[in-house]
Amino acid sequence: MKKLVSISLCFLFAFIAFSQSYSLRERYNLLSASHASMVICNQRIYTVGYTSDTSSPIDPMCLFSKHRLDGQLDTVTTFKIPGYMQTATGENSLILTKDSNLVCTGYCIDASNITKVLFLKYDINGNVLFYKTYSAVNSQRFFGKRIVETNDGFYIEGTIQYSNFDVNLFIIKIDATGNELWRKFYGSNSTDELTSAFIKTSNNRLLIAATKNNKDYSHDATFQSWCYLLMLDTAGNLIRDTIGIDPNIDVPQNLIETLDGKFIFCTGYATMKSNTMGTDFKGYVVKVDSNLNMLWEQLYADSSPVTTLFNVSELSTGELVAVGSNYNQLLHPYHNNGLIIKTDANGIQLWGREYRGVSRTGQNIEDNILYDCDILSDGNIIACGVAADYNDTFPQQAWLLRIDADGCMDNNFCGYTGIEQVENKNQEQGLVTVYPNPATNSVQVIIEHEMLNGEIKLYDVSGKIVLTKSVNTEKTMLNISELSKGLYIVSLEKDRVVARTKLIVD
Question: Rounded to an integer, what distance in angstroms lies between the CA atom of residue 463 and that of residue 407?
Fold first, then answer.
């Protein structure tokens, strides 16, 4: 439901089901690359993002790629406005147009160091059909964040920072060839307004999910922001707004209209604020009704100090898939891992897993971030983002990830979960074994003497604990007759020492 136009036009490929999964890192013979947004149509994955050239000056420019559903690359192109220092497209900004082309928004910086809004139209082979730029008086930064199509053109939504550092929201209405028809700004001088979430609703309204904040950026402990939902007519006039869903919500990153006519957005939620320790965030998804009243809200990735969700999509069943990043101190210190969470229609987590496009032993810092995703008719999930290896001189590689409906790869790797977080506390090998393996009704756990009086925990592949038992003998029987077939982890924990082994229930 993220891209209504692309979904309505592209169900033609629904009869084709591929089983391939993959984790692709690609630099395309460039110094760096990042996928920021994607659309799937006609058995092709179209992505836009940004990259750096291979010659000086090394400035960002737009990246376009086209892949087949099996991950094979068809086309890659780059684009930079002549005479401009930077040209870049934003996260989650790509849409398929009614004339079967692609448009996106972002920003560009001219030779005078003025940041302008960018509107860019591609054909399906990555050729730039035309581009337009839009500037603002007394503006220090003018960014396009999201774009939606109408019968007579497009709306570009984004944020503007003035020379006095005030930040507000804006909408620019343009015709089909990019000519500006009108623009309107929203906000006040007493607060800063920020957003990356904007849609046109099924009843022909415009909806923005944003935040207002108290501008206290230098003090984490006293910084406050408030959720801000803004409903407008197609002329940009205010119909309704609501403030105060929660004072700790970060800038909304993605907004969708659900099958039942309600609205969902995702972002991060501040759970701890400290001037010395910084701010901790959990993944956050909230659903509101057509009058913008909250129906439910959920937090995710409680074991991580910093989690942000950049995109949320809805399946035909009402289930949700959200993607983002998770700063996991236990799994790998100083590493962000790509995060994918699947929930039921009420936001209750079914599974949540981390993925790494970069994973090198001895590495100091890596970033694995998923910005966007789409879902195939068979439930397979394709996500895009960036995998950055900071051991490299130019670390960023564009990352394309395909997993099945349960979050697994072809080799039965189902992401990193709480299992691996436990493992890295202080793992010891060979202290616990199981027999028989595979097993059906029961299994014997054999424990080395130094682990006696510990606790056995049995995890499924999602990281959920399905069985626990205290142990005080070297051989313990576990009843597994009610467990589903599949892979499990037997973990024995005592005094912060963890021993683990795999078990297959057959």
Answer: 12
Range of the domain at 127: 4-416
The tens digit of pLDDT for each residue in 291-343 reads 998 899 998 876 667 889 999 999 999 999 999 998 865 545 557 889 999 99
Element (H, E) at 498: strand 497-505
Residues whose CB falls within 8 Å of the CB of residue 464, separated by 6 or more in sequence, listed in order: none
Q: How far is CA 191 from CA 27, 140, 252, in A?
A: 40, 17, 16
For 291, the token pair is 């009058």
3-state helix/strand/coil string of 446-458: EECHHHCCCEEEE
* 3-class DSSP state of 8: helix
Tell which wins on pLDDT, 256 or 361: 256
CATH assignment at residue 472: 2.60.40.3080
Give the pLDDT confidence score for residue 359 in this predicted structure.
Answer: 59
Helix or strand or coil: residue 422? helix
- What one-letter code names the amino acid at 306? V
Instruction: Please state the pTM of the whole predicted model.
Output: 0.79
Q: Identify which of 475, 493, 485 has the alpha carbon closest to the alpha carbon of residue 433.
A: 475
Give the residue, 486 or 62, on which the prediction is more confident.
Answer: 62
Instruction: Indicate if 280 and 402 belong to the same structural domain.
Output: yes
CA gap 370, 47 in Å, rounded: 13
Burial class (CB in 10 A: 0-12, 13-18, 19+), 384: buried
Angstrom distance (rounded) from CA 352 to CA 313? 15
- Domains in the chain: how many in total? 2
- The two tokens of residue 159 are 């944020």
Distance of alpha carbon 152 from alpha carbon 376, whole angstroms:
30
| Token pair of 370 as six digits | 């998923």
- Return the number of other C-beta atoms located less than 10 Å from residue 482's C-beta: 8
Domain end among 362, 388, 416: 416
> Tokens 């436990």 belong to which residue?
422
- Name the amino acid, one letter, at 415: G
- 265 token code pair: 């957005």
Residue pair 286/293 in contact by the 8 Å Cβ criterion: no
Q: How would you class 140 by CB atoms within 10 Å of its CB: exposed for 0-12, middle for 13-18, buried for 19 or more?
A: middle
